[in-house]
Q: What sequence folds into this?
């Protein structure tokens, strides 16, 4: 009993000490660890496929290695660069327009006085998040068709001309971004609203006493109060800058845009890799996309820390 | 001590369970028809693909009929039959994605068209079939489809001719119907067209008379599919067997072939003159075309006739005065040229055993069981008085029957027994086909289909037996490109057609078509020395 008081326990005995004392906690920790190993790390061994000429009969490990041939093949195809640029373009547009929207919306909702109105609005703007892209796409395609789409029929009846929203590549991109914002905007507000709730009400009271107006309070209290949240979400979004939702692009795609505006990495992987049974090309492209994603997250995180934010990692 | 005892007891329990299951052994028997069958000691799972179509009434993988198969086949041999739905409109993608892992891959894979069957071999999706086993396990199947059909499942793999697929039987029954509104023809005072020029004139008259209201669509047209874009009726002067073998293909469209370009030219004219829907390219599954036709907006529409299809019934509800006729097949051919048409292979769908399958004998037992006359008969026609009635000695399917054991799909149970046969055996004469495929009161359509077919000169595609590697490599990518090019060349202004077409096709050829043509030419010459 005296040992504990006098000498500092050696490293080894400290380990056994904690193990002996807190073993139920460590046992509990085993489950999430096993989960991570089994479902997050173990599947990554399949990435080996990116360096193999995969044949389903032989399985991942029985197939022959082929070095970086898969990458060479993918980047030797003339459209590869265009595909990467198009992915970047759509995602940057999404970031520029889609990222600030939930922040604006959250601030606006926060300023609403009428509780019932606020609740109902929140619920309604969450809804699109729960619709699958197939449903959303068929709704909008039916609405935006050139000949029989609702929007064009109304425009034509009012004497306007018909607009090929889905057939013109530029217009399709506008539609794509708009639908994306519409779908995710409401859901995105949840985190910001929670962050806003965390801001001390004393700050607002003090500002009121100092004669600050509504906009001054938003600018000087609300926005700085959720700055950390904004930075965290921005870092996470940057990690996905080369990724794009396959369902979103594919279900909105059509023959007019499939090789131009809608030709992004995810659909390219699907077309060249998966639907030709070339799973190794798909894996190679996916690996490339994710490595870039991780690099971007690291860079963004360092930048955030350099700017005095807490960062993510 | 107490803990130790309980651990010991648990161990004993686990071990005894393991040894019990090891005791159950497979039992081998022979059926009355001489087929070898195994009753598995330990239950195995057989994953059977089945087409999922639009407009099914019950889940295709779980309905009265699949339960019937489980009770009459699965339970008997201790096999759990699991049906895997495959999208009918996107089947190659669907199969290919499922083949990515042993968990999702079915035990069988099937397709109608030879080029895709070759691609599945090239991708090593299918395993070689042991012919000795076929003789043991499948006497009923062999007797039913006949030797000629069975031999069509042989392919050149690594220099050897081996059985890769089980072809199904198919009788020369054609239930495709391209119908025109006969009442519209009368209203504009035109005769049934007999050349493509006359046909365009009729469509122009439909358009000018606005017979379908504000949004009249003289003829329905969907985005061309690789199987549909064959340019059959523009082949005058292009019927040399070697040329057909290289250029005529159901999987990869030879856009650089003159008949194909001529066909697109006509489609371009139709688009620019407003004879087809401006939105045709967005209609990838044909649902818009169908809706336009059944709502009385469109003058021409093509579909598979079936007695319980809703096309004709819905049209008659919406437009009680509508009259239908089969469009004369000559209206696809330029005046003075020969009316060629595509001749389907004399076999039905071909089914292979996938590379993952561990019990090829179970696949054989399944197909053989389904080939037995009494099983097939029941799947084809169901029960008299419920699923069919007998009129003049012919079994006529009853499209109204709606009990819990109703037919699930608009083509009745074809998707269930498609691995064995494409056509119901009794339905090959004109009268029998009319009874099977035509809704009541529309039997005359079958007369007109037969009249039409009598005018045609058929060309059969060459059946390669050696896998075309480049086609397996580029096929799906070229299909996407083909769709994009189709949309562009059909919708470009008429004056720019040639320039647009030629520049797009150049790109398309470089993306793999040239390579495919060269390989096909070499393989053709090797197969036909």
A:
């Amino acid at each position: 009993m005296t040992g504990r008081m006098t000498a500092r326990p050696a490293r080894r005995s400290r380990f056994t000490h904690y193990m002996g004392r807190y073993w139920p906690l460590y046992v509990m920790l085993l489950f999430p660890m096993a989960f991570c190993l089994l479902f997050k790390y173990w599947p990554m061994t399949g990435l080996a496929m990116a360096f193999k000429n995969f044949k389903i009969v032989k399985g991942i490990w029985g197939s022959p290695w082929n070095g970086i041939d898969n990458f060479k093949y993918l980047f030797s195809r003339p459209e590869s660069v265009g595909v990467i640029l198009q992915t970047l373009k759509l995602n940057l547009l999404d970031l520029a327009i889609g990222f600030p929207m939930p922040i604006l919306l959250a601030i606006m909702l926060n300023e609403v006085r009428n509780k019932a109105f606020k609740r109902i609005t929140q619920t309604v703007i969450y809804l699109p998040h729960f619709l699958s892209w197939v449903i959303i796409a068929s709704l909008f395609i039916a609405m935006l068709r050139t000949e029989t789409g609702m929007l064009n029929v109304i425009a034509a009846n009012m004497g306007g001309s018909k607009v090929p929203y889905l057939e013109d590549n530029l217009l399709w991109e506008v539609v794509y971004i708009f639908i994306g914002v519409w779908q995710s905007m409401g859901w995105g507000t949840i985190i910001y609203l929670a962050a806003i709730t965390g801001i001390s009400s004393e700050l607002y009271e003090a500002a009121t006493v100092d004669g600050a107006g509504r906009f001054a309070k938003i600018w000087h209290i609300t926005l700085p109060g959720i700055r950390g949240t904004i930075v965290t979400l921005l870092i996470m979004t940057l990690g996905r800058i080369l990724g794009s939702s396959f369902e979103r692009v594919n279900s909105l795609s059509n023959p007019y845009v499939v090789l131009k505006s809608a030709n992004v990495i995810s659909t390219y992987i699907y077309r060249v890799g998966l639907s030709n049974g070339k799973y190794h090309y798909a894996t190679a492209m996916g690996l490339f996309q994710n490595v870039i994603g991780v690099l971007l997250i690291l860079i963004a995180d360092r930048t955030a820390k350099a700017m005095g934010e807490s960062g993510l990692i | 001590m107490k803990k130790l005892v309980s651990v010991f007891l648990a161990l004993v329990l686990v071990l005894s369970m393991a040894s019990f299951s090891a005791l159950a052994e497979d039992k081998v028997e022979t059926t009355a028809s001489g087929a070898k069958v195994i009753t598995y000691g330990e239950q195995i799972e057989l994953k059977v693909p089945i087409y999922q179509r639009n407009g099914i009434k019950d889940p295709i993988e779980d309905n009265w009929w699949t339960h019937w198969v489980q009770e009459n086949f699965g339970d008997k041999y201790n096999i759990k039959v699991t049906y895997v739905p495959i999208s009918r409109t996107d089947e190659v993608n669907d199969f290919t994605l499922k083949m990515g892992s042993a968990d999702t891959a079915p035990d069988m894979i099937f397709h109608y068209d030879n080029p895709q069957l070759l691609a599945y071999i090239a991708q090593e999706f299918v395993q070689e079939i042991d012919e000795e086993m076929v003789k043991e396990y499948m006497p009923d199947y062999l007797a039913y489809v006949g030797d000629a059909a069975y031999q069509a499942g042989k392919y050149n793999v690594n220099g050897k001719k081996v059985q890769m697929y089980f072809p199904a039987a198919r009788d020369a029954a054609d239930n495709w119907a391209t119908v025109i509104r006969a009442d519209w023809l009368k209203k504009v005072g035109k005769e049934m067209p007999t050349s493509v020029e006359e046909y365009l004139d009729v469509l122009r008259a439909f358009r000018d008379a606005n017979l379908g209201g504000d949004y009249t669509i003289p003829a329905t047209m969907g985005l061309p599919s690789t199987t549909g874009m064959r340019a059959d009726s523009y082949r005058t002067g292009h019927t040399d067997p070697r040329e057909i073998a290289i250029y005529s293909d159901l999987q990869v469209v030879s856009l650089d072939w003159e008949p194909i370009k001529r066909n697109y030219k006509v489609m371009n004219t139709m688009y620019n003159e407003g004879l087809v829907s401006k939105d045709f390219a967005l209609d990838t599954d044909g649902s818009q075309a169908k809706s336009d036709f059944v709502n009385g907006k469109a003058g021409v529409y093509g579909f598979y006739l079936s007695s319980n299809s809703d096309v004709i019934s819905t049209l008659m509800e919406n437009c009680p005065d509508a009259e239908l006729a089969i469009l004369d097949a000559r209206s696809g051919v330029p005046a003075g040229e020969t009316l060629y048409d595509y001749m389907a292979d004399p076999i039905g769908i071909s089914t292979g055993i996938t590379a993952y399958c561990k019990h090829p004998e179970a696949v054989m037992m399944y197909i053989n069981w389904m080939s037995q006359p009494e099983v097939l008969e029941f799947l084809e026609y169901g029960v008299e008085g419920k699923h069919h009635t007998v009129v003049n000695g012919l079994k006529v399917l009853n499209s109204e029957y709606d009990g819990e054991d109703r037919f699930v799909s608009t083509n009745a149970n074809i998707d269930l027994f498609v691995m064995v046969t494409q056509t119901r055996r009794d339905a090959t004469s004109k009268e029998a086909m009319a009874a099977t495929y035509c809704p009541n009161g529309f039997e005359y359509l079958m007369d007109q289909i037969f009249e039409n077919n009598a005018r045609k000169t058929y060309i059969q595609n060459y059946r390669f037996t050696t896998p075309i590697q480049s086609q397996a490599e580029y096929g799906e990518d070229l299909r996407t490109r083909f769709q994009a090019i189709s949309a562009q060349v059909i919708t470009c202004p008429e004056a720019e057609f040639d320039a647009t077409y030629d520049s797009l096709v150049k790109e398309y050829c470089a993306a793999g078509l040239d390579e495919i043509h060269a390989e096909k030419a070499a393989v053709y010459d090797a197969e036909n020395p």
Notes: The mean pLDDT of chain A is 88.
